[in-house]
Amino acid sequence: MERLALCSKVLYDRDILEKQRRIIELEKKVTPPKIRFKGYEDWERFKTEMYRDVHVVLEKMVIDNHFEYEHMSYQGLTFRQENALTECVYEHLYKGTNNGEWSEKIANDTVYSLRTMFASLHKTQLWAFIYQLLRPEDISELIYEHVRWYLDDDSHSPCVIEDLPEFVCDTCHAIVDYVNETQMCIECEIISCYEHRT
Ligand SMILES: [Zn+2]
Question: What's the pTM?
Answer without folding.
Answer: 0.83
